[in-house]
TrEMBL record, chains A, B:
<dbReference type="InterPro" id="IPR015422">
    <property type="entry name" value="PyrdxlP-dep_Trfase_small"/>
</dbReference>
<dbReference type="GO" id="GO:0047958">
    <property type="term" value="F:glycine:2-oxoglutarate aminotransferase activity"/>
</dbReference>
<dbReference type="GO" id="GO:0004021">
    <property type="term" value="F:L-alanine:2-oxoglutarate aminotransferase activity"/>
</dbReference>
<comment type="subunit">
    <text>Homodimer.</text>
</comment>
<dbReference type="InterPro" id="IPR015421">
    <property type="entry name" value="PyrdxlP-dep_Trfase_major"/>
</dbReference>
<dbReference type="GO" id="GO:0008453">
    <property type="term" value="F:alanine-glyoxylate transaminase activity"/>
</dbReference>
<comment type="pathway">
    <text>Photosynthesis; C4 acid pathway.</text>
</comment>
<comment type="pathway">
    <text>Amino-acid degradation; L-alanine degradation via transaminase pathway; pyruvate from L-alanine: step 1/1.</text>
</comment>
<dbReference type="InterPro" id="IPR045088">
    <property type="entry name" value="ALAT1/2-like"/>
</dbReference>
<dbReference type="Pfam" id="PF00155">
    <property type="entry name" value="Aminotran_1_2"/>
</dbReference>
<keyword id="KW-0663">Pyridoxal phosphate</keyword>
<comment type="similarity">
    <text>Belongs to the class-I pyridoxal-phosphate-dependent aminotransferase family. Alanine aminotransferase subfamily.</text>
</comment>
<keyword id="KW-0032">Aminotransferase</keyword>
<dbReference type="InterPro" id="IPR015424">
    <property type="entry name" value="PyrdxlP-dep_Trfase"/>
</dbReference>
<protein>
    <recommendedName>
        <fullName>Aminotransferase class I/classII large domain-containing protein</fullName>
    </recommendedName>
</protein>
<feature type="domain" description="Aminotransferase class I/classII large">
    <location>
        <begin position="84"/>
        <end position="454"/>
    </location>
</feature>
<keyword id="KW-0808">Transferase</keyword>
Length: 480, 480
C-alpha cells in the first residue's frame, strides 16, 4: 500500500483548511459543471462585467495595445488604427517603465503611475496625497491581504468586518490566522451602519481576550449596495481613533453610485476635513481598483492602496514584503494610470471615452432598478435598492417546508434554494451564508451585471422559479 | 503627544519583521538613491532582461496587443501592422476567455492555456500531463508561496533550501512562520549537489524537533548557475521519497542553458522514467515562468505550477486559496500560452521568431563566458562557469584589512565590498549574504544581463575597482 501523502488533507496548514470562499464555492462549481454539460449559465456570482458582455473602453485598450507592441509606433501606418492621443499616452507610460511592460517595476509600482494616482486623489478630495504612500498591487485583493498580513499577529488579533461582508475578508483573516469580529449592518434601514452594534461587538470581543486591531468597511457596499453618509464615516473614524483601531476603507466601487442623495465621499476626505489631531493620527488604508467602475477591467489585475498616517517604518516593512513577489503586473499598473487620468475635454479621444463610460454607468443605474424592483415583485422576497456597487442582496423568506427539505438534503437552506434556482434557470448566485447574515434569515447575492436587454427575461425567469418554489414548499408538510 | 500607532514597527506581525529580502535590500535602495542623484547605475541585482535592453519578441507582443484591442481585428487595415498568424492566434486565445482579457478567468487560469501547457510538458518529457493539475499564477513566485502556505503549519515545519539560495525561499518561509533547513552546494565542484550534506542536515533538523516537509531545488541554479545531472535529480527524488518530503522543483531557467554536456531535464521526466511505486508516490510540484528564458517577460507576471502525485483534496484546497484573489492576470496567462506554443516551421512568423530567440540565447551564452572569465581575471576572485540561468556568483576573498574596515563601518564584509563597488562603478550587485554562503566566505551575485556590447567595459571597470580594493586593503593595517 502506498504511504500516506506528506501533503494529506489532514496534514496541511489548518488555516488553509479552515478558509472558505463562497464566491467560487459549491454553487460556482456546480454551475461550471452544468455549463460543461451544455446548460446556459448566467454567472452572477462574481462582479465580472466583461464576462457578461460589457465592452472595454476603446481609448485605454488602444494605449494598452501600444504598450504591448511599442514597435507599432515606428510604423507609418500606426495612425490608421490608433488615435493620436493613444499614441502619445502609450509613449508617456512606456517612458515611466525601465524597459517596457516586460520589465519588473519597483515593487511598489511605477513611480510615474503612483504620482498620477496621488494627483487624482488630490483632485477628488482636495487634500494632498503622497505617492510614497501609494502602493500598486495585482488587484485590490492583494493589497488588502498585504495590510492584513502586517496587522494580524496571532489568533488573538481581531478585525471588525461588516456582516454581510465580501468573503475576501473572512477568507484572508482565517488564512492569516486572525479572528474575524463581525458587526451587523441594519437591513431594515437599507443596510446602514449600526454604531451601537459596533461598540457592543468590540466590547464582547475584548471580553473574549481579542485585541481589536482593524476595522473594514466597504463603501459602496458589497454585497449590500448601500452608500455610507458622511456622518457615518465620521462616526467610524472617531470610533477607530478612540478605540485604537486601523481603518481599512474598501472603496473599489467609488464610481458605481446609482442615487444622487449621497454621492461617494472618501474616508480620507472625511478624515482630513475633521482637522485637529485625529486627522494626523488615525491610521487609514484605502483601496481602489480598475476592476470595477465603468472600466470593469477585472482580468488586468490592477489595484492600489493609499496609506494615511501609517508609521514610516511600517510602510518600509510593507515595501519589503511586496518585494518578495518582485512587482505587480505592469500592464495592470498602466491601466490604473488610465483610470485616474482619463481623456479630458478637447482631447481627440474624449468624446468617445465620455460616451462609452456614460452609457455603461447609465445602464448600470437602470439595471439596479430593474433588478431590485424585480426581486420585490417576487413572493417572500425583499430587497433594498442597490444604491451603489454591483450587487443585490435580497432576503428570501423561506417557508418551514423549504427549511425541512434543505435539512433532509443535507444543505443549508439558502444553499438549497440557490442550487434549485441554478438547476431551474441557469442563474448562478451565491447563498447569503457565504457573506454572513443574521441567524434565521436567508439571502442570495447576485450581481446587477447581466445586460439590460437580458435582464427583464432573467428576472421573469427568477420570479417563475421563486414563486413556484414558495408555492411548493408552503404546502403542509404531509403533502410534499 | 500623539498616541503610539496600532501598526507600530514593534507591534506588527513578527514574521513580517523577521523576513528579509536582499535582492531589493540595502544595495538596491542605495543604487536607487544614486540613480536619482544622476549616477549611471547598471542594475544587475535582479534578473530583469528588458530593463537591461533585451527587446521583446515580435510575435508574442503582436498577439498580446491584439488581445488588448480586439476591435483592431475588425479594421481592414489590421494586416498592415500585424502578421496573419498573430491575428489568428489572438482570436484563438480570446476565444478561451469568458470576455476578453478584462474578465477574470477561473482562479486556476484559463482552461485552454492549461491544456497547451500540458501538451508542452508532454512533448518535453514524453509523459502525459493533466491540465487539472496545472495552475497559472501571477509569476512563479506566487505559485511557490501558495504551495509553501499549504505545506507549512508552524515553526516546527522545515523546508530544505539550497545554500546559496534564491531569497524568495527564505523570505517566504519566514513570512509563513516555518523553518528554513539549509543544505550546502559544493562550490569547489561547480556548485554541485552534496547528498551527504543533505542527509546530515535532515538528521540535524530532526534532532532539533523539526519535521522536514519540503525540499526546494533550483535547476539551472539561482544564484549559482549550475545544471543538475540526471543522476543528481534521481538522488534527490529517492531521498525525498524515502524521507517523506515534498519536492519543489524551481525550473524557471529551463531554457537558459549555456553548455551542451548536461541539457535541461525536468524532475518530472526523471521521476516518471524511474517507474515503479516511486513514480506514482513522490509528491512533486514544478514551477515555470515567462519571466526568464529568451522571453524575459518579467513585467507580465505569468507563471505556472504543475502538481504530480499531489492528493486530489489538497489540489482542491490550493484551488480554494487561489480563488480568494479571484484570478491571475489574464494577459500573463496568454503569454504563457505563447511561450509553450511558439510559431512552428512553416508559420508566417516562424523565421523572425526563430531568429530573435536564437540571437538572445546565443548572446546570453557569450555573456556567461565573458562574465565568468572576467571575474576569474580579477585578483582574489574565483567564479564557477555560469552553466545556466542568468547569474554569476563569484567568491571574493577579502583580505583581513577589508574585513576590519567593514567591521569599523558597521557593515558585513560582503555588503561593504558591494557598496564600494556600487559607489565606484555604478554596478549594482547583491552581497552573497543575501543568498547564504559558507561561514567565512564572501560572494557577490550579478546577472549576466548587461548587453554584450557593454559587458567588456563593465568587466574592465569591475576589475579596476576590485584590484584597487584588494591592493588598498592588503596593506598592513598600520598603513591604512
Amino acid at each position: 500500500m502506498a504511504p500516506p501523502k506528506v501533503m494529506h488533507p489532514d496534514s496541511i496548514n489548518e488555516n488553509v483548511k479552515r478558509t472558505s470562499y463562497a464566491v467560487r464555492g459549491e454553487l460556482y462549481l456546480r454551475a461550471s459543471e452544468l455549463q460543461k454539460e451544455g446548460k446556459k449559465i448566467i454567472f452572477t456570482n462574481v462582479g465580472n462585467p466583461h464576462a457578461l458582455g460589457q465592452k472595454p473602453l476603446t481609448f485605454p485598450r488602444q494605449v494598452m495595445a501600444l504598450c504591448q507592441a511599442p514597435f507599432l509606433m515606428d510604423d507609418p501606418n500606426v495612425s490608421l488604427l490608433f488615435a493620436p492621443d493613444a499614441i502619445s499616452r502609450a509613449k508617456h507610460y512606456l517612458a515611466m517603465t525601465s524597459g517596457g511592460v516586460g520589465a519588473y517595476s519597483d515593487s511598489r509600482g511605477l513611480p510615474g503611475v503612483r504620482q498620477e494616482i496621488a494627483e487624482f486623489i488630490y483632485e477628488r478630495d482636495g487634500y494632498p496625497s503622497d505617492p510614497e504612500h501609494i502602493f500598486l498591487t495585482d488587484g485590490a485583493s492583494k493589497g488588502v491581504q498585504q495590510v492584513l498580513n502586517a496587522l494580524i499577529r496571532n489568533e488573538k488579533d481581531g478585525v471588525l468586518v461588516p456582516i454581510p461582508q465580501y468573503p475576501l475578508y473572512s477568507a484572508s483573516i482565517t488564512l492569516l490566522g486572525g479572528t474575524l469580529v463581525p458587526y451587523y449592518l441594519k437591513e431594515e434601514v437599507n443596510w446602514s451602519l449600526d454604531t451601537a452594534d459596533l461598540r457592543s461587538q468590540i466590547a464582547t470581543a475584548r471580553k473574549n481576550g481579542i485585541t481589536v486591531r482593524g476595522l473594514v468597511f466597504i463603501n459602496p457596499g458589497n454585497p449590500t449596495g448601500q452608500c455610507l453618509t458622511e456622518e457615518n464615516l465620521r462616526q467610524l473614524i472617531e470610533l477607530c481613533h478612540r478605540e485604537r483601531i486601523v481603518l481599512l476603507a474598501d472603496e473599489v466601487y467609488q464610481t458605481n453610485v446609482y442615487q444622487d442623495v449621497r454621492p461617494f465621499i472618501s474616508a480620507k476626505k472625511v478624515l482630513k476635513g475633521m482637522g485637529g489631531p485625529i486627522s494626523k493620527e488615525l491610521e487609514l488604508v484605502s483601496f481602489h481598483t480598475v476592476s470595477k467602475g465603468f472600466l470593469g477591467e477585472c482580468g488586468q489585475r490592477g489595484g492600489y492602496l493609499e496609506m494615511t498616517n501609517i508609521h514610516p517604518q511600517v510602510v518600509e516593512e510593507l515595501y519589503k514584503v511586496a518585494s518578495i513577489s518582485l512587482s505587480p503586473n505592469v500592464t495592470g499598473q498602466i491601466m490604473l494610470g488610465l483610470m485616474v487620468k482619463p481623456p479630458k475635454p478637447g482631447d481627440h479621444s474624449y468624446p468617445r471615452y465620455a460616451a462609452e463610460s456614460k452609457a455603461i454607468l447609465e445602464s448600470l443605474r437602470k439595471r439596479a432598478h430593474i433588478m431590485t424592483d424585480g426581486f420585490n415583485a417576487c413572493q417572500n422576497v425583499e430587497c433594498n435598492f442597490t444604491e451603489g456597487a454591483m450587487y443585490s442582496f435580497p432576503q428570501v423568506k423561506l417557508p418551514p417546508g423549504a427549511i425541512a427539505a434543505a435539512k433532509a438534503a443535507g444543505k443549508a437552506p439558502d444553499v438549497f434554494y440557490c442550487l434549485k434556482l441554478l438547476e431551474a434557470t441557469g442563474i448562478s448566485t451565491v447563498p447569503g451564508s457565504g457573506f454572513g447574515q443574521k441567524e434565521g434569515t436567508f439571502h442570495i447575492r447576485t450581481t446587477i451585471l447581466p445586460s439590460e436587454q437580458e435582464m427583464p427575461a432573467m428576472m421573469a425567469s427568477f420570479k417563475r422559479f421563486n414563486d413556484g418554489f414558495m408555492a411548493q414548499y408552503s404546502k403542509p408538510a404531509s403533502k410534499l
